Amino acid sequence: MIAMLVALALAHPAPPPPKAECKAAYGEVACGWDCKAAYGEVRCAQTPSGVCHAAYGKVVCWDPPRRVRHGHKAACRVAYGEIACGFECVAAYGKVRCASSPYGACRAAHGDVVCTDE
Questions:
Q1: Which residues is 72 bridged to in the sheet?
Q2: How far apart are CA 75 and CA 88, in angstroms?
Q3: Mind listing the pLDDT tens digit for each residue in 27-61?
C-alpha cells in the first residue's frame, strides 16, 4: 500500500508554485502575485497565497499569516463600499469581515459580523 502511494506521488508531482509577476501602470511598477492596477494604483500580494482586489476606488492586497500560507488560497469579498480579504468572508449589516485563518469562521448575528481564528 505504501509503495503504491509513493508511486502515485511520483507519477503526479505537485504543480509548481505560481511565479511572481511585475505590472506597470500609471507610471508605477509593482511586483509580486495577483497584481491589480486600477484607480491610479498598482499593487501586488507579497506571497503566492495572497490576493488583491480593486473596487470602490481602492486597490487592496492581503497576505495570510505565515502559518497558513501553504495549501490555502485566500479570497476577497466586496460589499457596502468595503473590501475585506481573508478566509470564510461574510457580508451583512453593512459590514464585510474575513477570518485570517482557513480554520476560522465568520458569522453575522445581532447587527454585527464577528470572525474567529482557530
A1: none
A2: 8
A3: 999 999 999 999 999 999 999 999 999 999 999 99
Residue 7, CB-side half-sphere exposure with 13 Å CA sphere = 4
Q: What is the pTM of this model?
A: 0.79
Q: Tell how far CA 39 is from the center of its chain.
A: 20
Element housing 68 (H / E): none
Taking only the tens place, the pLDDT of each residue in 10-30 is 555 656 677 999 999 999 999
**Which residues, at least 6 apart from 64, have a Cβ–Cβ distance to it below 8 Å?**
47, 49, 50, 72, 74, 86, 87, 100, 101, 102
Residue with cell 466586496: 78
According to DSSP, the β-strands at 41-45 and 75-79 are unpaired
Number of helices (H), then strands (E), in the chain: 1, 10
What are all long-range contacts of 30-35, with beta carbons under 8 Å and residues at least 24 apart?
32/61, 34/61
